[in-house]
Amino acid sequence: MRFTLDKFVSDQAEGLRRLLTRNSSRVVAVCGAPVGGMPGTGNTSTVVNLAAALAAQGKDVLVIDERQNAMSASRLANVPSTGALGAVLTGKRFLQDAVTRTPFGFSMIAAPRDERISHDAAHCRILLDGPADIVLIDTQPDRSGALSTLAAQAHDFVIVTRVAPAAITEAYACIKRLHYAHAISRFRIVVNHVKNAADAQIAFDNLAGVASRYLAVQLMQAGCVAEDPRVAKAHELSRCAVEAFPTTAAARDYRHIAADLQYWPMPESSHFEWPVQAVHMETPRNIERSINPGATSRRTETTLPEFAMRSPASV
User: Fold this and answer.
1) In sequence order, what are the residues at sequence separation of 6 or more whose Cβ sits closer than 8 angstroms to the Cβ of residue 311?
2) pTM score above 0.85
3) Over the Cα atoms of the chain, what is R_g?
4) What is the CATH classification number for the domain harbouring 94?
5) Does 295 reside within a domain?
6) What is the mean pLDDT of residues 145-149?
7) H or E stretch covering 52
8) Cα–chain center distance at 166
9) Domain of 80?
């Protein structure tokens, strides 16, 4: 009963914040640390499946795809890779008219580097202040590991990693680069390709401990996703696991993370300031035009590899 009440209060407070704030969308930047010599962490799969799960739960979702490669989300959904973003940022097209509606229930727009580097943060707000409930950015950090002007304005920063020493080490390196580039002090962690939930918990605890000790950065659990070959199979079919294989363990995990995401404490702004109190009030929905018309000390860091190796998965 207490859990239900807490969810209700959080939902009402979130509704009031959305009514009173000019920034209507919650913006989540999803980052996957590259891991040399092994498969990726599943950054794009996480974005696409979370978007599909959120859409199925009645949310208006916009995916902004910064990645331009054969495995990108825009390639998966057959979204035009160039032109749309530039047209929106230069005022030639409205956002609602430039996005592509995907078969998975959410909208998407490709954000190639050439079309976004010439615009400042104010121009980028056009994408982030639109009518979508949630904006997910599949980020493409630059060579120094910094985020784009677009992604750096997100409310939440999610790091996708795996239960493996190399992946955990790279996740920490990614967090360090983002912290020093953008003064980000809070990250959420998705542990992907999980065989055992206990291993995922140990990996998170180790990573959170090192990040807190050496960077004074707070890490929060976003959830874990079971290792499931049908995630890759869905991608081969140009689909996503949540839509193609809804009864699988991975699809279940994505839906769980998507449901929790809606109740993450909402920052007052995208400058990493979090609310200190909740407001109890019910607010009307559907007050905005929907993008989706059908939606409802001296420190040394040489110990990091040692902590990563303590994961049971590395034995």
Assistant:
1) 163, 164, 165, 168, 199, 202, 203, 206
2) no
3) 19
4) 3.40.50.300
5) no
6) 90
7) helix 43-56
8) 21
9) 25-265+300-314
